[in-house]
Amino acid sequence: MSKPARNASARTRASEDDTDVTSPFLGNGLAWLRAAWVLAAGGLAIVALALASFNSADPPTTAVAIPNSPPLNLCGKFGAAIAHRAYELFGIGVWMPICYIGTLLAFFAVGRPMTHPFVRLIGACVMMVAVGGLHNEWFPSIGPVTGYQAGIVPMSLSLELHEHFGVGASLLFLMMLGVGAIVMADTIVAMLPGALANSFEFLSPIWKTDWSSATASLRERFSSMFPQPALATPTRTPRARRAAAAATATAIAEEDEEEVEEEAEAETDVDTDEDVNDNDAPSSEFAEEATRKTLSDDALREKIAKLPVKMNTKSPAKTATDKDIPRTPDYSGYQFPAIELLEAP
User: Fold this and answer.
1) For residues 118 and 181, what is the distance between their CA atoms, to the nearest angstrom?
2) Distances (CA, A) of 271 to 176, 257, 258, 265, 290
3) 262-289 pLDDT, tens per residue?
4) How deeply is 270 buried, as exposed, middle or buried, from its count of CB atoms within 10 A (0-12, 13-18, 19+)?
5) Is the CB of residue 37 less than 8 Å from the CB of residue 101?
6) Are 167 and 156 in contact (CB under 8 A)?
7) What is the DSSP string of 70-93?
8) Which residues, in sequence order, are CB contacts of 271 under 8 Å at separation 6+?
9) Based on the number of CB atoms within 10 Å of its own CB, is 41 exposed (0-12), middle (13-18) or buried (19 or more)?
10) pLDDT tens, residue by residue, 223-234
11) Model pLDDT, residue 213
């Protein structure tokens, strides 16, 4: 045999070996595994169809006196019995193991390995009990089987936890649901936060917008469209009015004093210049002129009294005497009218 022929046969055998390793359903010597997969897929399909077409009036029901004959379940009496027992024991949570087993069979069919399949099955069972417990906590009157709406196993566990933890039983079932989901599908659970963030990416303009500037511009626009009327000055108390008047009078007095001082300084400067030119005038005259220009305290008070501002002048308190105290009037000298003045009835 030539060398190219030997190389071709070697490549053929290597490709067959690789095919057997990668996908066990494509090998020539594993027909029993294919048959087992077909049986498992068919059984799973029958159970799923029976659960999906469950009717509470099909036998062996206890909800009605006369059950359906024949049963309305698509899988007949067998399907009705399987669905009734499954819902009676585990409630609607029975769909968790069904979905997991279907996913496992799909992985085997495409040749993708799944690590720790039995451990993941335990996680699916934990999720089944958690879903039934939450069903009994939140919707106890709704369910496929009358009397066992959430399933016997989840209802028993829910009653025990509710007796000891009250409303906290719902939190415990939520924790069980999360743990079961991580055990059954850890990769999918790890991808959920990123998927949720990407699903809300279309809302990014909402939290990236500068709402403070937008609100300020809207406020300015509304204020220009609807101008506010001028508000009246609030009425001040008498004490506040007196304090404001005193402050105004003090400010005016200080301004007057400053003006008087400035005028006195200006006249003093002028007189000083004249005295420099006239050496005969004594320096004492300038001091007398400045003294006359400076107002005394009495003159300043008289000037303030002429201002149109009422000062807070308090008169000295007057001591009350005995005459100032009101007394009962004295009717000793009063003469009552005569009875003749009264009119006859």
Assistant:
1) 14
2) 105, 21, 20, 10, 10
3) 777 766 655 555 554 454 444 455 555 5
4) exposed
5) no
6) no
7) S--STTHHHHHHHHHHHHHHHGGG
8) 285, 286, 289
9) middle
10) 777 766 655 555
11) 78
